Amino acid sequence: MRDPMGExxxxxxxxxxxxxxxxxxxxxxxxxxxxxxxEKRTLLIDMDPQGNASSGCGVRAGTRERTIYDxxxxxxxxxxxxxxxxxxxxxxxxxxxxxxxxxxxxxxDPKRALKLKEAILSVVDQFDHVFIDCPPSLGLLTVNAxxxxxxxxxxxxxxxxxxxxxxxxxxxxDRVKNGMNPSLEVEGVVLxxxxxxxxxxxxxxxxxxxxxxxxxxxxxxNVRLSEAPSHGKPIILYDVxxxxxxxYLALARELLLKTERDGKRGAKRKAAAGARx
Length: 277
Ligand SMILES: Nc1ncnc2c1ncn2[C@@H]1O[C@H](COP(=O)(O)OP(=O)(O)O)[C@@H](O)[C@H]1O
Ligand SMILES: [Mg+2]
Prior knowledge:
disordered N terminus
């Protein structure tokens, strides 16, 4: 096994925003699928008990005997729950409602916030990128994701209260940085469900750019993105020519360029894979 802290280690990105309905799951699923199509081995970890990231990748509820819940409570290893998704190179660690119980079961465990970090260590040299879809809260499941991650990606819907939520989120990120995970970085903000005809959307976008790195690739409001999950498919399999698919493919390219340019971990993996072959 290669050194898990070495250059070939996956880059772990968690998709976080404590507001519901801002496009976290849509971003986690479609960004992970788009990164996988760029020939990066990609793992999507579903940390939301709603399990929407799992079903959005075609992993159905009845087929999930072991899930991320079993991993978090220490019953099984991460590799035992990972399943292949419909997109080549994309793998999913699925979640079900069971995950709700993990918070209660771990309440007396002093290392309760580090469960996901420990679990990821065993697979981190098998992937180029790991994405974590978080629930709409800043509770224990999200803190586990922040503790396990190298970077945070924040989907943001450009509406009036969007910035207010960001202040709370950044305070939580700072707390995790000052304690469990000093190297945690904010990768940037992704504008989701963007409607260019809406003046407020432009104003909010300008305001966010004063405080954060905002990806140039903006995800437009696109009905195909909202239809794809009911078919259990990421948008690139459902309608690759849609504006939504093109948005996520562009975002994946931009993210990969950014991390590779900055020399971030995960970027060297392909060369290593080639050497092994
Ligand atoms: N760019 C988009 N265009 C249209 N609908 C979208 C878009 N992004 C997300 N949606 C829809 O909005 C709803 C909330 O998105 P979701 O990704 O589940 O948010 P979250 O995970 O933050 O709660 C879902 O029904 C989803 O299909
Ligand atoms: Mg979600």
